[in-house]
Amino acid sequence: MKILGISCFYHDAAAALVVDGALRAAAQEERFTGIKHDPEFPVNAIRFCLEKENLDISHIDGIVFYDKPFTKFDRILQSYFQTVPKSYPAFRKAIPIWLRRKLWLPSIIKKELQYKGPIYFVEHHLSHAAGTYYTSPFERAAILTIDGVGEWATASIGKGMGNRVELSWAMNYPHSVGLLYSAFTHFLGFQVNSAEYKVMGMAPYGRPLYAELIRKELVQIFDDGSIHLNMKYFKYHYGLEMTGRRFDKLFGRTRRNPESELTDSDRDLAASIQEVTGEIILKMANHAKKITGENNLCLSGGVALNCTAAGHLLQKRIFDNIHIQPAASDCGGAVGAALYMYYSLTGADKINNQPYFTLGPSYNNEDIEKYLTGIGAPYSIRPETELIDYIAGWLSQGKIVALLYGPMEFGPRALGFRSILASPQKAEMKARINSAVKYREPFRPFAPVVLEEKVSAYFENGKSSPYMLFNFDVKPDQREKIPAVTHIDGTARIQTVNHEQNPRLYGILKEFERRTGVAVLLNTSFNLRGRPIVRTPQEAFATFISSGIDALVMENCALAKETLPAGKFEKLRIATKED
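RESULT FIELD:
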């Protein structure tokens, strides 16, 4: 049984392939087109999934889409009709796109893929729920999904039991935790559905001075975690923006210009909405515990990627264990839809479906050598043991090293296969990478990757966390040892690693520890600001020469910046841009 899952047309388009219940391949369209959060039909990602398993479209038993377009269209029409005439500009812009394209998905799928088999549709939040439960190690669990909006639902609670997923509680549009957070993302001058993590990263620099005002004027929070938004302050249900003049008046200021310097007011607003969001998520989790009685929780939806709130939830120990789908946002909907349809069609027993989410393209040494030789780049080939020593040596000297190794990660996090690594021992490393490598805002934190067996030595209540999804407190006596990955509030979004998950990264950490006494490295995604994580050797090399990265290792091919002929590769440089 071969099921192809698709998500597209909103943001983070992706494709995923499930074969006999096993997740075999998944990729985001952005990694092929270079357009960050690309929403278009994921023809390239689909092609990759098929090629990876040596299939063509005729081998696919069913294609499933991650939401129900006609139900979503009904919600959009009702919202616009209820807010006439204010909604007319948005209506005029949106409806032609729906009538020309979004309502014709079966035709698009058949035409683009030359597909003649059955096509299925799964509700958006059911896709989220299935994506997190079926990739969890649990045989039964409570499920909580929270995002902006699917068709009508903005959050849902249900249960996973054996091979079944059922939802029993929902909160509906326009009342949405995700859209509330996105309204502040917009107001703070960042891009909605793209830069909510910037608000989260900025929050610890401020004070939650506006939290009570938000609770009083913007959102009523009920004991079950459901909310009621005061819609007079918002425009997203009828307009082309998230907020309007009343929102400005409430906070005594206008929306931040994206190019302007951040102010104390910006930081305090970020801290305030982060506190309120965390409160809502805790109440939802408590309600999920109450109505399901389960000891394990599966969490998904874009809001689940708020690692500050997720870390706080973990510390509260409402549940014994929490699993978050690593690709919790819309791209992961392709995974959830495919898995849900497989179990629905077959009735098969649930299998443990945790492939470390390294599901994308990989390249061998022959591919890489051919490319580097073709452009005349000097490189050396090193055996694995020597290569690990080489990388750890560079890192211990304060150098920045980029890796392209094995299959590409699926989801927003780089886990050591498309990563930039650096020593965490000096605070200035954070500023150096933000300014000279990533070309991004100086407040943005970096994540530590730590040997799984040493996690409790550095982090309070440290436990296995292989996907960078939870914040933990850095132990006070360790903060001076790893300042580059310790956020201003003393927390860190950690990644643990063991030999089975990533033997090279594990080996580098072991050797770095031997050299420095520190079993932690700084790990950030291998990309420039405004661009997706690199996929190919060509993209990796271009990013390498366009930034302050000191060394690049692609499989067993190693390059040092200092050995490159001056000016030879200028035509391959990437012009950095805003995200």
